[in-house]
């Protein structure tokens, strides 16, 4: 049985794959050692996607 993903979960999956590809290209296992960690738009987009997937696009609390 396959889990049906909503638009927020799908967007998160895309951003996660992009972030992991960037880490792989730079031979990193995490964003922390990267010199661009605070300026990285890809990382910011991933974090935004995480929050949106948790809140399902609504302002305020998260639905766990």
Q: What does the model show?
A:
With 64 residues, the chain is mainly alpha-helical. The protein has one domain (7-55). It is 53% helix and 0% strand. Helix 1 runs antiparallel to helix 2. The radius of gyration is 13 Å and the shape is flat. The two termini are 22 Å apart. The mean pLDDT is 90.
Number of domains: 1
The end-to-end span amounts to: 22 Å
Radius of gyration: 13 Å
**Share of helix among residues?**
40-55%
How would you sum up the global shape?
flat
- State the secondary-structure class: mainly alpha
Low-confidence stretches: none
The residue-averaged pLDDT reads: 90
Along the chain, the helix and strand elements come as: HH
Largest sheet: none
Number of helices: 2
Q: Beta-sheet strand percentage?
A: under 5%
Tally of extended strands?
0
